[in-house]
Amino acid sequence: MGKLIYSMGVSLDGYIVGPDGRFDWAMPDEEQHRFHNEQARALGGHLLGRGPYETMLYWETAEEDTSLPDYEREFAAVWKQLPKVVFSTTLAEVEGNARLATGEPAEELARLRQETDGDIAVGGATLAVACIEQGLVDEYGPLVSPAVAGGGTPFLPPLEERVELELVETRTFASRVVYMRYSA
Question: What is the tally of structural domains in the chain?
Answer without folding.
Answer: 1
